[in-house]
Amino acid sequence: MGARARAPGVVCVRGGVRPLSLPDAPGASEDRSCSPAMPSRYARGAGAQRIQCTQPTLRTLRTLRTPRTLWTRTFPAGLIATSLALALAPAPARGQGAGQGQEHPGKAAYDRWCAGCHGIDGRGDGEAAAYMLPRPRDFTRALYQIRSTPSGELPTDEDLMRVIDEGMPGTAMPGWRTLLSRSEREAIVDYIKTFSPFFAQGEAPQPIEFGRAPRATEEALREGREFYQRIECWKCHGEAGRGDGPSAPTQEDDAGFPIRPADLTENWHFNGGGTVEDIYRRLRTGLDGTPMPSFSDLLDAGYMTEEQLWNLAHYVRSLSPPEPPRVRDVIRAARVEGALPASVDDSAWAAVERYYIPLVGQIVVKPRWFAPTVDGVWVQALHNGEELALRLVWHDPSQSPDTAWLVWQRRVLETMEPREGGPQPADGAASAASAVGSAPAAAPDGRAGAGAATTAAPASAAVSDEASIDLARLPDAIAVQFPRTIPRGMERPYFLMGDARQPVYLWRWQSVTAAGAGGAQDPSEGLAIEATARGLTRIEPLPPTSQSLSWDATFDRGEWRLVLRRPLATADTVNQLQFRPGEPIPIALFAWDGSNSEEGTRGSIGTWYFIYLDQPTPGTVYATPVVAAVLTAGLGLVVVARAQRRERSGGSSV
Amino acid sequence: MFELRDSVVVLSAGLLLAGCGAGDSAGGGGAAAASEETAAPAAVVDPTTVGTISGRIAFEGTPPAGKPIDMSEEPTCAAKHPGGARTEEVVVDGSGGLKNVFVYIKEGLSGGPYPPPTGSPVLDQNGCVYEPHVLGLRVGQRLTIRNSDGLLHNINAKPTANRTFNISQPTNMETTRSFAVPEIMIPVECDVHGWMRAYIGVVDHPYFAVSAADGTFQIANVPPGTYTIETWHERYGTQTVQVTVAAQQTAEVQVTYRDQMAQNAVVPLGQPIHLHDHPAGARAGAAEGGR
User: Fold this and answer.
1) Do the Cβ atoms of A297 and B168 come within 8 Å?
2) Which residues of chain B are within 8 Å of residue A252 when distances are taken between CB atoms?
3) Which helix (H) or strand (E) holds B233?
4) Is B273 exposed, middle or buried (0-12, 13-18, 19+ CB in 10 A)?
5) Minimal Cα–Cα distance from A199 to chain B, Å?
């Protein structure tokens, strides 16, 4: 499908798509072809209208999986936000420099490239800021996360330059190294320092002497793990490091915006970089302006040694895979003999190839959602000629609904929602019908082994558009989307759950039923249904006779694991996709975190990928070599025999 | 009325008028201030002439009850509050005294020099609450931050005029920090325990206090003069009163807070204060304080 080809960057303005060629960015390299730096001139073509990024952007994002730079490959959401930001950026103040002569040399570049998010006055209140979480840096406070200096100290110029060059993974801040000239970037560093009086006071900040990383031996990792427990990193970051600690729901940054503890198993999102050196530095310096403190005082107090802190850094690094996940277009479902593993933790899954599918916030249909929880799903697939099994694994710090997260839910809505016009939170459980009830309430329980559908599904399960939602009842959910039939050409239904003309076929699982909602912590309380969707808010469950999903789910320290199974062929060939091995079948994923106030259009979305079910190995594959071998041997024998005979007869004739 | 700027404007105007009209009665304080100013570099406060400001912060009406704190995540801390812990936003005793009001001389001082700070006040984390809840500190004075809980706290100070800091204390230990410039007030928070909050007032002179459980406070060794005193409360905001301190005398101050004040209260947080930006007011001081 060519998604790997490096397409030129694309800016999508309402109703149109244009190639982006970075006309004004000195040093722009091919490596950043789909660059975050969407020049504002294109945006201004759309006037002051909000920019709607539709399918082309998602497609564009997929092309970003191949670039070598960390952030582009792994943080499409940041790209979207940044694109939006730059698209919304105010016009550079023209003529100021010419007439007044005294303008700071960094101002022009700052106003043009940075002010869209950080604001003309550096207060972190640019036009796009409201669409970002975490919010852009407020330079007037001179609080910087990524430093080489002790907590509370100013960053060095090199620290500032590094963030400008590399960007901040896990946020909307892109890297600018290849987009702006060195002198421009230096001028910007100098200019952002003028927003705070702190830089003009006192001596230049002095970096900490960090030393070098000791080797990451088994013993070092064991000790690191011990300190992870002992100094209670888990309080925020969770037992398994997935950002799901008991203190996670109440975290806020210095400006009072909700902020999440890092998921330590995804080092490609670490704001200051994912190497062991980066991690050690963050432990020493803290991330000022966030809840993450500095641990340097523990060294001064003799509580732990530098080496022990390094070992902690090694341990944290070890929680993430050696390389960030690579995104591939085709999920292969291998064919196995016998029954498929029905349980999520069946050991058979360990040997099955894993595919990473990145997700981003849904920002096409209002109310949009710029602060999604789920940023990717690991997919495994198997079939046996009769049945298909998908195992989906994704990180979500909460098993929703969970009342411990109610505070977070309100805050994140207040922070991100006001301009979207979406439903506002309601207090208490009075409006019980809305949230969870919006998903099909009484669909069949197809729990592993339970078999076919029996219960009546509600006539309609259109996602709630009521004025208020009941936060306390929102479940976690995931949806797997297929076309209703395997397409013959390249045309597929609209990736956002189809439309009226071309509906999609959906598997939708949620963590609790409406009846079980209210804090149930038993994964077996969930619900899986098959449905037809004609858009994000038009989901209709199939009739009970067409419900054939089986499932098994477990929630484990910030991670959902779910297995969904369905027979390849079913009776309802109109509504249900008939899976056929040997053909690429489009597949897309959606996810919702109830404890992040996600439901309906507020959630994570992905674009189309393919799943390919291996064909059964035909018998001829085994027979042909044998036949060939026998024939060859036979032929050989004949040839040899003949030759011998000829030799004999020839010899006698001589 | 409790908006800081308004108070300053009104006071300044009043003081100027008073200064013009009542020169004689201003003589004592004015002269003292003036002489101190001329001799400023060397002269430390004359111990034989100093007086005391003594007062009480009263609360009128029914105070809101503290909200219960759910410490079930931290059994160690919960055990230190047998009756259950409550937030300390408004603490009023049986006699109507309001605790945790920061009181300091805001205007009228000559600018020192003052005796150097002695000791290092302690901000203790005990039972997953800060003790004390409100604390005064001199510029440059070392603050001792103590963890008596033996479990993870982080100390996240959120000033604006000063540099921030955010440090970790996962065990019983002490750390010291200081602040470089005056600031009213600096919130201190623990991100591990969202309910933990303290406030630090940083001033560049020794004339400050925090009201005790019965609402009383005392500021000792004050040079004779007329001063503007500001009282700060985290929910009800600030009030200013004027007070004249005579040599070796105790000046009484009474300030009253009411619950309705919460509606219009402007609670200065992270505001740099410029204690010596009002020389006119400082020298004119004749008007008697109190409201």
Assistant:
1) yes
2) 191
3) strand B225-233
4) buried
5) 11
CB nearest B151 (choices: A151, A232, A288): A232
Cis preceding linkage at A321, omega within 30: no
Res B68 pLDDT > 50: yes
Which of these ranges, A181-190, A191-200, A578-587, A628-637, has the smallest mean pLDDT?
A628-637
| pTM: predicted TM-score of the whole model, two decimal places | 0.77
Q: Is residue B102 a contact partner of residue B229, using CB atoms and an 8 Å limit?
A: no
Q: What number is the ipTM of this complex?
A: 0.75
Report residue B189: phi and psi, to 5°: -135, 155
Q: What tens digit of pLDDT does each residue of A6-62 get?
A: 333 333 333 333 333 333 333 333 332 333 333 333 333 233 333 333 333 333 333
Preferred mutation among B72, B149, B152 to probe A, highest tally of A CBs within 10 A: B152
Which of B160, B166, B193 lies nearest to residue A141, judging by beta carbons? B160
Give the residue from B277, B271, B276 showing the smallest Cα distance to B162: B271
Cβ contact B133:B233 at 8 Å: no
Please tell me the distance in Å from B126's CA to the nearest CA on chain A: 17
pLDDT-wise least confident of A305-309, A462-466, B264-268: A462-466
Helix/strand/coil for A572: coil
Distance from CA of B78 to the nearest CA of A (A): 16
From chain A, pick out residues whose CB is under 8 angstroms from the CB of B159. none
pLDDT of res. A6: 34
Q: For residue B174, which residues of chain A lie inside 8 Å, CB to CB?
A: 301
- What contacts A572, CB < 8 A, 6 or more positions away? A542, A543, A545, A546
Which residue in the set A143, A232, A252 is minimally distant from B164, CB to CB?
Answer: A143
Q: How far is CA B6 from the centre of its chain?
A: 19
Would you call the peptide bond into B113 cis, given omega within 30 degrees of 0 as the criterion? yes
Q: What are the helix and strand counts (H, E) for chain B?
A: 5, 17
Token look-up 């150097």 returns B116
Contact residues, chain B, for A292 at CB < 8 Å: 166
- Which is nearest to A169 in space by CA: A38, A37, A272? A272
pLDDT value of position A193: 96
Nearest to B154 among A143, A246, A291 (CB): A291
A296: which chain B residues are within 8 Å (Cβ-Cβ)? 167
Shortest CA gap B98–chain A (Å): 28
CB-nearest to A297 from B152, B156, B175 is B175
- The conformation of residue A314, written as its DSSP 8-state character, comes to H
- Of the candidates A393, A452, A107, A119, the residue with the CA atom closest to the CA atom of residue A266: A393
Comparing alpha-carbon positions, the chain A residue that sits nearest to B188 is A254
Q: What percent of chain A has pLDDT over 70?
A: 75
Q: How far apart are CA A12 and CA A43, in angstroms?
A: 9
State the alpha helices, DSSP H only, in A114-150: 115-118
Task: Count CA atoms closer than 13 A to A626's CA, side-chain side.
Answer: 5
Contact between chains at B160 and A235 (C-beta distance less than 8 A)? no
pLDDT-derived band of residue A102, with 50, 70 and 90 as boundaries?
confident
User: Is the dihedral angle over the CA atoms A637, A638, A640, A644 positive or is it negative?
Assistant: positive
DSSP-based three-state secondary structure for B155 = strand
Residues of B in contact with A301 (CB under 8 A): 173-175
Task: Name the pLDDT band for B115 (thresholds 50, 70, 90).
Answer: confident
Chain A environment of B190 (Cβ under 8 Å): none
In terms of CA atoms, which chain A residue is nearest residue B171?
A231
Beta bridge partners of A379: A355, A392
Of A321-325, A372-376, A415-419, A481-485, minimum mean pLDDT range: A415-419
- Predicted local distance difference test score (pLDDT) of residue A38: 34
- A443: β partners: none
Comparing CB atoms, the residue among B73, B167, B173 nearest residue A293 is B167
